[in-house]
Design goal:
Layout (H helix, E strand, L loop, with lengths): L28 E5 L6 E6 L4 E2 L7 E4 L2 E9 L5 E8 L10 E5 L4 E7 L10 E9 L5 E9 L5 E5 L11 E2 L2
Length: 170
């Protein structure tokens, strides 16, 4: 258990190490579940690589939710870039965050739904944006329920094929 405080969020990055010669026979995933009921809320398939400049689609958010974009500098590379959100019209939504992360460090930027909609039942669509000119930033985004902190949507970027030259393989 990483926290015992209701509503407190903890960010983690799963990692799997395999021995030489068996990597192509392994298939990893990560799962988040409720300790009380054992209910699964997020399953993330493992990948062979990450897009150097990830592209995310639009994500819906309500007044009771917050959308978050996460980045981590996967060793041995640093992560230097900017995190932000765009609205449906492509205009900035919320603030932006400049990041300069040493290998192993992570950062996130939140956009509360209450900054976009004013009453229950309304939804706004936003696009998380990660700009990292030199790569090195592995990104994901999620939507969580305010107050409880439970993640309802987790959206990793599309994994890259091992033959792609535009991907970073850790």
């Amino acid at each position: 258990m990483l926290t015992s405080v209701l509503g407190k969020r903890v960010e983690v990055q799963p990692a799997v190490a395999v021995g030489a010669g068996v990597a192509n026979r392994c298939n990893a995933s990560a799962e988040v579940f409720d300790n009380l009921l054992g209910i699964n809320s997020v399953v993330v398939p493992g990948t062979l690589g990450f897009a150097a400049n990830p592209l995310f689609g639009m994500i819906g958010v309500t007044e009771l939710q917050t959308v978050r974009v996460n980045v981590v500098a996967f060793p041995p590379d640093p992560c230097v870039g900017q995190l932000s959100f765009l609205n449906r019209q492509g205009a900035p939504a919320g603030s932006a965050l400049e990041v300069q992360l040493a290998p192993g460090q992570a950062a996130s930027l939140d956009l509360p739904g209450s900054a976009l909609v004013t009453k229950l039942g309304q939804r706004a669509e936003v696009q998380p944006v990660v700009i990292a000119p030199n790569g090195g930033c592995f990104a994901s985004t999620e939507v969580y329920l305010n107050g409880l902190g439970t993640t309802s949507v987790y959206y990793p970027p599309d994994p890259c094929s091992p033959s792609s030259t535009s991907c970073v393989v850790p």
